[in-house]
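I am still getting used to backbone structure tokens and would like to learn alongside you. To get us started, please write out a protein record for me. Start from the sequence, derive the backbone structure tokens from it, and show both lines together. Once you have written the record down, we can walk along the chain together:
***
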Amino acid sequence: MQKSSTLYNETQESYKIEAKVVDRENGMQEYDNIRMVRVVSKDYNLLIMEDYMPLIGEIAGSVEVVTDSDVIRFDPIHGFFMHKKNCFYLLIEDHMAEGEEIAEADDLNDFDDSYIMEEFKNAGIFKASSSSSKTDSSKTTKTSEDSDDLEDLDL
């Protein structure tokens, strides 16, 4: 009797998640066939798996990228992360010393993240904004400086 070729074989299972990590020290590192991503910060603890909802956030803690054979750990770090369409992006702004806490901005206006957004765009994480032109003097269109960066996320 011949065995069916459709039997589940756990050793050949592949995962859809890929991860891209941008770091000043190591540049961009890419990982694929990711089983799950753990994000642990002082305010939350996330476990991101395939087809997880889109999200974006700041991390002051640790991130673990888990494959079948390895756990890649980034800690303690301060940075920003995004998960979109089974791709996890991590921008590590700073490696913290053990026990060090990140000083939070008193007001969102005090926090300048323009260089962080530029790093994400350079890494190919966000689409480049296209600038609009004016068709005539009576009609004006919104310029790229006025557009919100979140519109580029395509969630």
Observations:
- The longest helix spans residues 114-122.
- The two ends are 49 Å apart (CA to CA).
- Residues 58 and 87 are 17 Å apart (CA to CA).
